[in-house]
Fold this sequence. Notes:
Elements: H1 10-21, E1 25-29, E2 42-47, E3 53-59, H2 61-71, H3 76-84, H4 90-103, E4 116-121, H5 129-136, E5 141-148, E6 152-160
Antiparallel strand pairs: 1-5, 2-3, 2-4, 3-6, 5-6
Helix pairs in contact: 2-3, 2-4
Amino acid sequence: MSDVTVLPGTLAVRNLFEDLLGREVTVSPGEPLSADEIPTSTVAIFIDTAQNIYAVLGMELALAANAGAALGLLPAGAAEDSIDDKELYPNLAENVGELCNVLTSLLNREGGPHIKLHQVVYPGEPLPADARAHLLALGRRVDLLVDVNRYGKGKLSLSLAP
């Protein structure tokens, strides 16, 4: 099998968010999630068919709350309250979990390994050390600022395993 691993581009990420949320989304290059932001971030761990970590995606609390509210057709105030309280409310977390599952489509390529969502780690839950290391690693990664129209923006970092 040839290596067809490719990081998704900003256009693919934008299109997926827009299609799923049903609203305009702006995606631009951003800063990576910092180690200090990880405890309050939502982290998705993706694995290949051999059960190895293939990629780790992190969404800053602000993006998780805004995207979760937009997906659930909740008012922007629901996301703002969640951000102000520094916790991802359960209804928003459920929506973000679904979003992470759909984001798997960015990683699957024809001729490549089948990638699936293994686990979503929500703010306050312990993140496995290997997933944390992948998320903070330099190398094959993309760091974006995602702005959900009428809700708000936040960081998204995706790091592929070496």
